[in-house]
Amino acid sequence: MEQTIAAIYKNPTAFYNQKVRLSGWVRNHRAGKQVGFIELVDGSYPESLQLVYSADRGEAFRDVSLGAAVAVSGHLVATPEAKQAFELRLTELDLVGGTAEDYPLQKKRHSFEYLRTIAHLRPRANTFQSVFRLRSLMSFAVHRYFHEKGFLQVHTPVLTASDAEGAGEMFQVTALDLDRLAGQPPAALDYKDDFFGGPAHLAVSGQLNAEAFAHAFKNVYSFGPTFRAENSNTARHAAEFWMIEPECAFCDLDGLIDLAEDFIRAMIQTAFEEAPQDIQFFNDFIDDGLIQRLEAVQAAGFSSMTYTEAIDLLEKSGQSFAYPVSWGLDLQTEHERFLTDEVVKGPVFVTDYPEDIKAFYMRGNDDQKTVAAVDLLVPGIGEIIGGSQREERFDLLAQRLAAKGMSTEAYQWYLDLRRYGGTPHAGFGVGFERLLMYLSGMKNIRDVIPFPRVPKQINF
Amino acid sequence: MEQTIAAIYKNPTAFYNQKVRLSGWVRNHRAGKQVGFIELVDGSYPESLQLVYSADRGEAFRDVSLGAAVAVSGHLVATPEAKQAFELRLTELDLVGGTAEDYPLQKKRHSFEYLRTIAHLRPRANTFQSVFRLRSLMSFAVHRYFHEKGFLQVHTPVLTASDAEGAGEMFQVTALDLDRLAGQPPAALDYKDDFFGGPAHLAVSGQLNAEAFAHAFKNVYSFGPTFRAENSNTARHAAEFWMIEPECAFCDLDGLIDLAEDFIRAMIQTAFEEAPQDIQFFNDFIDDGLIQRLEAVQAAGFSSMTYTEAIDLLEKSGQSFAYPVSWGLDLQTEHERFLTDEVVKGPVFVTDYPEDIKAFYMRGNDDQKTVAAVDLLVPGIGEIIGGSQREERFDLLAQRLAAKGMSTEAYQWYLDLRRYGGTPHAGFGVGFERLLMYLSGMKNIRDVIPFPRVPKQINF
């Protein structure tokens, strides 16, 4: 049976003096006069395995190039005096696939900017091995967390007839032939001919659909791709990203905040317990304050303040900001970062935002000015979670829709949830990539997405 | 602490004579002269919990309507002589949310067709409670299966510049204003102005991207929404569905077939072990041959035949088919169903299809006529898995691209995977909804998707 490098690192003594078969790729190769050394990687572990062969094996061994795919076997031997604790003494080596001479991942440091231009090869680079292992682990951890808590997963639709959910610009989806449309009279644009018989868009959230399911299964969540057609070229925005959205019936804002804190803590714990080597890698090479920061979060509590208190703190801070600070204006990233990085020095929930800057579905507070919204801000990132208690009172929700100029007809089904066994309910959204950036210290969202989609970039 | 109905059913004796708090919805209510009975559901379990109260509790209890949301508490009492083994004797009942009189889910059987028109409420109906609990469980089971096998999950992009991956019609995605486009001269359609600076589509598969990751992590899988703009109104097709796509480096067709069989067996086992009541429900009310059929699959092996053998069997069957049978033509659903339902009477792998009817990336066999493709056919459904070994030989892949009139420039990155440490590799795709139909006996794909999208249907 083939082994993985992870299995060997996890329990090397079980393999000592055993014959071991492996396959993977050559990370480094030094062919000396007496002895050759190959560093083998197979994606399972942050460290490579050292393969050793004697020079009399000849060219079949000596000519193996950097990046080549090989299948090998040999005996694993403890080497207590060497840098590595063990090495594999090769008896067989099959060249499965060589590399052309222009292989871009030569043995040197490449910038993240350059590696983005070879997104099909960058998962082989050290940093991206750790990034995408962490991404896979955390994706599983999200599902496991909610599954163990009895949440039902609901696959909310990506395609939606709605064009205004208040969460950002939307992409349009069509099966019409645009080449034929241009040049036709305006009346030629008839959505009755389109696939769905009307305009269709890519959903910016699965929340409204998840609310319907929360009223049948109480606690539900969705986790899937989400889309924004916002032309913003920042390190925190992508046109396509994954979002985690739990939604709980019979739940108010306090219950939601408890869930959000528990969720973030569980994710940090998973990263520490199940990817310790990758987290250490990020701490060593990406962000040397990472482990200390995450450990501090686990040791202390999450702070909490109202939006009104946050504005007060910002106004009194003496700090000069690029964007204005005033009650009624939304917090910008610089404000969020100041609150979490400088004031609280840790995660902080900001609650009860002005109604006018929040979406129509958020529950009105008794002060008639604010809504039961909550954002979680974390150091180095800013907003990582946004949520709210939802307006469950039919009349108030209908008023909000009307006040925002939205069609009550289009939202009839959503209003129905308030007419038939409605409950106080609440939910939040976590940007999965922001969570990964928080857990890894990676600074650009493009570097935690396998094939990022941003303005003017849709390669691969 | 609040309990769930599932927790009580799983270990009722732990709750006997204890005070229990619950919340959920009223499935049925009989207010007698002496005693009232409420059937409570909370989405966690296929059975309801019987709540009992004495009539002197008055209107607050008696007036609770079907579908209402309630929070209750009382003592759980064993009732060995009654139909139910236990009941909750109510001491408190809070009406959280009532139901308007026109509540559509009254106590009678509704057709699946009707329930599709109220997709926001149907998850409260018995059948859809079981369907969506199974969907959630199986989604988790997919992730757990691959996680435990060491597969890395990769989130392949939904947005793609490719418009021809050979798996079906694609939706176009745009941020252009189509209302302004119609009526302009043809030159007005300039994709340089569009979000990505070129045409964009919704991916029909994540395979090509997954191949890149398989060459960094060996065994990977994707599991996400997939799109087809095919105007086919069948019980097996939807415009948006979820697909599971494992991709393995250092793997040939035989290895892939082993994985596919192991995967299907593991999914059946999970359904039996972790959703026995839901599977029993499907057997009782949806498909009375379900359990027998799935048990037979677990007991026997999966069969295998080549496409050439399949054509031979079909030609000699004496069966009359609507579509012609001839070597070189693709198998239609009626042919697949005949092979799996009638000939094999169980799951069957069909391998080695003619090159001309399969996608460009499938590996050519030595006979120069067929490719190393495999479909898994199962009774009642037809094709549930489609996969292949991929063409890893650079020259042959480039030839196939050219022969199909595809741009080698657009696929340069994909060709690169054959130039830099390439390996024999293979992968398959499983339609998640078809898997659910197979495990539940549900006959229409619209009834296993929370909010189905099909031609002219994009409500909710």
Automatic annotation (TrEMBL), chains A, B:
It is an enzyme of class 6 (ligase). Residues 132-450 form the Aminoacyl-transfer RNA synthetases class-II family profile domain. GO terms for molecular function: asparagine-tRNA ligase activity. Keywords: Aminoacyl-tRNA synthetase, ATP-binding, Cytoplasm, Ligase, Nucleotide-binding, Protein biosynthesis. Gene3D superfamilies: Bira Bifunctional Protein, Domain 2 (3.30.930.10), Nucleic acid-binding proteins (2.40.50.140). Its EC number is 6.1.1.22. It catalyses: tRNA(Asn) + L-asparagine + ATP = L-asparaginyl-tRNA(Asn) + AMP + diphosphate + H(+). The keyword ATP-binding applies. Its main location: cytoplasm. It is found in: Cytoplasm. InterPro entries: Aa-tRNA-synt_II, aa-tRNA-synth_II, aa-tRNA-synth_II/BPL/LPL, Asn-tRNA-ligase, Asp/Asn-tRNA-synth_IIb, NA-bd_OB-fold, NA-bd_OB_tRNA. It comes from the Bacteria. SUPFAM superfamilies: Class II aaRS and biotin synthetases (SSF55681), Nucleic acid-binding proteins (SSF50249). The keyword Lipoprotein does not apply. Homodimer. Belongs to the class-II aminoacyl-tRNA synthetase family. This is Asparagine--tRNA ligase. It comes from Peptococcus simiae.
